[in-house]
Amino acid sequence: MTLQGTWTRYLEYLSSTSGDLPPGARAFATDSNHYDFHRRRCVIDLTLQAIRGVGGDEMEVEFQHRCWKHDQDLVIRHTGVSSFATYPAVSSGTDLGTVILDEVLPHRDGCCHR
Question: ω into residue 22 within 30 of 0, thus cis?
Fold first, then answer.
């Protein structure tokens, strides 16, 4: 399956489940610019820069922009966090990786951002 095929499947799923997401997560997830590689707001190839507040009720995830493509970094703030995990597990605060596909899914506690 191609990456484009993965996006298509996710966007089809999102169209039927977005009403189950909290309002902020729904607005973020349904912004069509996030999934268009040619748009400045595309989240597909940002670099994960920092994760703050791990283990707490509030977390902040910062993504560094690509200078050739994006205007600014992206910071996502989560409230009411019930759990946090990275896959594969992040072993250090350096080289956290590149976002290949960003998904926000409904979860019993609100949403799951992966």
Answer: no
75-88 pLDDT, tens digit each: 889 898 988 877 66
Spatial distance between the Cα atoms of 56 and 42, rounded to a whole number of angstroms: 28
- In angstroms, what CA-CA distances link 35 with 53, 61, 80, 81, 104? 27, 19, 26, 25, 12
**d(C-alpha 13, C-alpha 49), whole Å:** 28
> For residue 103, which of 52, 51, 53, 30 has the smallest C-alpha distance?
30
Q: Is the pTM of this model over 0.85?
A: no
Eight-state DSSP code of residue 19: G
Tokens of residue 75, six digits: 């910071």
